[in-house]
Amino acid sequence: MPGENLTREEARERAAMLTVDGYDVALDLRSATEPVADASAGVFRSVTTVRFRCSSPGASTHLDLIAPAVRSVSLNGRALDPAEVFDGSRIALAGLEAENEVVVDASCAYSRTGEGMHRFTDPVDGETYLYTQYEPADSRRVFANFEQPDLKAPFTFTVTAPAHWTVISNSAATGDPEPAGEGAAVWRFAPTLPISTYITAVVAGPYHVVRDHYARTLPDGTVLDVPLGALCRASLARHFDADDVFTVTKQGLDFFHDHFDYPYPFGKYDQAFVPEYNLGAMENPGCVTFTEEYVFRGKVTQASYEGRANVVLHEMAHMWFGDLVTMRWWDDLWLKESFADFMGTFSQVGATRFPNAWITFANRRKAWAYRADQLPSTHPVTADIRDLEDAKLNFDGITYAKGASVLKQLVAYAGQDAFLEGARRYFKRHAFGNTRLKDLLAVLEETSGRDMAAWSRAWLQTAGVNSLTPQVTHGPDGRIAEIAVLQGADGEHPALRPHRVAVALYRLDADGALVRAERAEVDVDGARTAVPALAGAERADVVLVNDDDLTYCKARFDEDSLAAVREHLGDFADPMARALAWSALWNATRDGLLPAREWIGLVLRHAGRESEVGVLQALHQQTRTALEHYTDPASREQGRLLLARGAERELRRAEPGSDHQLAWARLYAATASTEPELALLKRLLDGAEEIDGLDVDQELRWAFQDALAAGGAADEAALAAELARDDTASGRRHQTRCLAARPSAQAKAEAWAAVVESDALSNALVEATIAGFARSGQRELTAPYAEPYFEVLERIWAERSIEIAMAVVRGLFPMHQASPGMLERADAWLAGHEDAAPALRRLVLEGRDDMARALRARACDTAAGG
Fold first, then answer.
1. 3-state DSSP call for residue 232?
2. What sign for the dihedral angle of Cα 305, 309, 314, 319?
3. C-alpha angle 409/415/421, rounded to 5°?
4. Residues tagged active-site
5. CA dist 254 to 247, 259, 289, 308, Å?
6. Ramachandran sector of residue 362 (left: φ over 0; alpha: ψ -120 to 50; beta: rest)
7. What is the pLDDT, as a whole number, of residue 409?
8. Phi, psi (5° rounding) for residue 149?
9. What is the pLDDT of residue 4?
10. Which residues touch 865 (CB under 8 Å, ≥6 apart)?
11. Could you give the strand order of the β-sheet that contains 208-217, starting from the edge strand earlier in sequence?
């Protein structure tokens, strides 16, 4: 990987010298259907013509290309020797003229890792499907280019492929496919508007396609007509609810047109749901790609539909934030991702059937940000991105969820109208260009009248998360004499920020519900800020800082409020307040302030009354983390037993057929371990027992089989029989995970070898194998692999693509072997490998920090146990 890197300075020098006028890219994908004899995915022909100007005639530069072979290169009609100019990742170009044309004819490789041109064969019907995925710098795996976001250009794609396929790209085809002989055809696409390399796209294969259109009358009276497409693999067509995707799409386009005052500029709007995708989705203009996990094969909760709608709207927001106006370099990645993350939820609440999306954001999305912001690798929202490896790792909770939270704070600080007017001016001023932080701040200062430089320094250019704790004093009459908000900061990141917050008083009413009685907004600034508006109020049962989740902080409770929350957490009438209380308690658990056993007890006591299923599912995941990593080992099995019993109780108690019932069924499967617990799963699988309303569909069957395999109650034959019921791509992933989860030394050795010693598995199967290998209840079986993990790190990083390397380094970190000795082993590796790739060191450092946090939380839990 190091030879494939590109530094920020190299990109700046190249951008200062070059202006790209256009690309013509011809891809011949007929080879995709040929059988592959070995672990490789084969190659295809890629011919690229690039026209560009150079401000320094006689200078040198390079094109980016990662390919097995280059057939020919010509510069301004002059043939260059590929052996001399191509080193595997760059094509050297010397003696440039004022105007240049370079033609590269290359053999590029299909991918099995989700990077570049990914090739997938459907086990159901044997059909081959292709799609591209480039962010941040993988278009160079498909065609030669200047791989950096600030060298925008129009792209014209021509694709030769089997005639029965569907082929789409960013722009519409200029006509029907032209016959090319021997069952092939040629698709020609119109030139794109100027866009960056990383958002170009091609999707090709016998996809199932549903068509619709969106129409909008613009202020000048013209009608904007946007053809809509939704695609998935043919074998998934019976599960594909394209109508719901189109409904959200149209609602989003209406919302953004109402608020952005800039018509959608990219013509058509196709959305392709593709296999083995590494991301949730990617904002390629006119050709958005999504993971096909959003094509639901079985019953899912309403939270899954809400999550899919959020992703659809997130990617749509990118059409303006990211595609129309693009950051100059990856330092300002937040200019697209933070805004899209914020606008996804903002539009979801404003335009769709999911009015409570901010609750999900507060409880789930921000949990990701809080974790990332407390790692040693935390960084300001505007990060220091030195090279492409840095960029790859910065698609993280800071850039997305913290950035979105900061923008929510900005809306509270500057006002929604000023914020949206700033966005409108930003689009019009910088359309099809590249920007930096200062460009956005300039328009926001114009529209809000606020000092954006000071706000930016506090929120965008410092790292770490503040804690806000209420300090309450009472007078002789028992009423509140004063409420102040105390702001704290991490010792590594001591900045205290300005926060616009709401402080609310909650009291138990006659029916036993915790309801908001009084509320005041205040600008918190510094270590202590009084809230004069609440002085003299009647004593409250709970004082909630950051009511309505206006700011980004870890909210804490004062002692009296914490005592009331322990007793009445399920009694909050407002689901947002309840979600914020859960969030505060989870942060306290992670910080070693609340024992893990108490967290588990609170979930068992109160989560059965949680109305928001998305919050409930987040609580289930957090509780599994608490059990696996934060609980005293001596009481872990007791905690697991209580959790499994509680999950079964709530499963049987839940409304038949409800989302909550399904959520509790999945938690039961995830915690079942003893013979009686596994026997219930077997009876549900075999139909010997039924729970009213619970549909044990194929996806739930695999969840049950996973538990049975990990518990030693489903052998290889049983898993093969289950695969025979579901011999699909999803079924094969599930079976792979279950096989690796079996509690035997042989199963673990096979899984380790498949991931570490071989490069034969696709990205999806690598992830499935790791998920099965690293099971919390099998610590003795995985312990022998802790030392080999540290021994193979540098080899994995050098030999694998960055996507696969990241999955292996993160997924196999010996977290389940957490101990002071293992922490020392991680420290020893870091100390002995100071010259290792910074991105690799970052991943190990993050794993080490998670382990240290787990040990601190475990100590808290041990102390609480007496």
1. strand
2. positive
3. 115
4. 315
5. 11, 9, 21, 18
6. alpha
7. 86
8. -70, -20
9. 86
10. 595, 597, 632, 634, 635
11. 208-217, 223-232, 269-274, 287-291, 281-282
- At position 838, the amino acid (one-letter code) is P
Q: Is-contact 596 857, C-beta < 8 A?
A: yes
What mean pLDDT, rounded, does the chain reach? 95
pLDDT surpasses 60 at 62: yes
Contact residues for 623 (Cβ-Cβ < 8 A; gap 6+): 599, 600, 603, 643, 667
Do 202 and 130 form a contact (C-beta atoms < 8 A)? yes
The predicted pLDDT at position 866 comes to 62
Strand order in the sheet with 480-488: 528-530, 480-488, 467-474, 554-555
DSSP state of 510: T
| CA distance linking residue 72 with residue 61, whole number of Å | 18
Tokens read off for 808: 């292996």
- Torsion angle of the four alpha carbons 186, 191, 194, 200, in this order, in degrees rounded to the nearest 10: -20
Q: Are 258 and 657 in contact (CB under 8 A)?
A: no
Tokens 């190659």: give the residue.
43
The pLDDT of residue 3: 62
Strands in 499-508's sheet, in edge-to-edge order, are 514-524, 499-508, 542-545
Place of tokens 């870091």: 830
Long-range contacts of 764-768 (CB under 8 A, 24+ apart): 764/114, 764/275, 764/276, 764/729, 764/733, 765/732, 765/733, 765/736, 766/804, 766/807, 766/808, 767/807, 767/811, 768/733, 768/734, 768/736, 768/737, 768/740
**pTM (two decimals):** 0.96
What's the one-letter identity of residue 285? P
Tokens of 340: 């899209």
CA distance 147 to 87: 16
Does an H or E element contain 524, and which?
strand 514-524
At residue 40, does pLDDT exceed 60? no
CA distance 18 to 2: 25
Q: What is the CA radius of gyration of the chain?
A: 28
At residue 392, the 3 state secondary structure works out as helix
* Distance separating alpha carbons of residues 429 and 234, to the nearest angstrom: 43
Band (553; pLDDT cuts 50, 70, 90): very high
| pLDDT surpassing 70 at residue 50 | yes
Residue (of 543, 427, 435) closest to 485 by Cα position: 543
Q: How far is the C-alpha of 704 from the C-alpha of 668, rounded, in Å?
A: 9
- Torsion from C-alpha of 88, 28, 207, 171, nearest 10 degrees: 90
Distance, in Å, from the CA atom of 698 to the CA atom of 688, rounded to the nearest integer, reads: 17
Owner of token pair 């595997």:
88
Q: What would the pLDDT profile of 377-435 be if each residue is shown by its tens digit? A: 999 999 888 998 888 888 889 999 999 999 998 888 888 999 999 999 999 999 999 99
Token digits of residue 480: 């509140």
Which SS3 state, helix, strand or coil, does residue 456 take? helix
Per-residue pLDDT of 120-168, as tens digits, reads: 999 999 999 999 999 999 999 999 999 999 999 999 999 999 999 999 9
Peptide bond into 136 cis (omega under 30): yes
At 487, the amino acid letter reads Q
| CA atoms of 570 and 749, how far apart (whole Å) | 45
CA pair distance 497, 468, nearest whole angstrom:
11
Query: For residue 481, which phi and psi values (nearest 5 degrees)?
Result: -85, -40
- The position carrying tokens 């509320």 is 519
- The per-residue pLDDT for range 754-808, each reduced to its tens digit, is 999 999 999 999 999 999 999 989 999 999 999 999 999 999 999 999 999 999 9
Whose CA is closest to 732, among 698, 686, 708? Answer: 698
Question: Tokens 């202006």 — which residue?
Answer: 19
Helix (H, G, I), strand (E, B) or coil at 134: coil
C-alpha to C-alpha distances, 347 to 52, 257, 414, 422, nearest whole angstrom: 39, 11, 19, 17
Per-residue pLDDT reduced to its tens digit, 73-122 = 999 999 999 999 999 999 999 999 999 999 999 999 999 999 999 999 99
Query: In which residue are the tokens 């839940």 written?
Result: 654
Interatomic CA distance for residues 124 and 726, integer angstroms: 9
Distance CA 740, CA 770 (A): 8
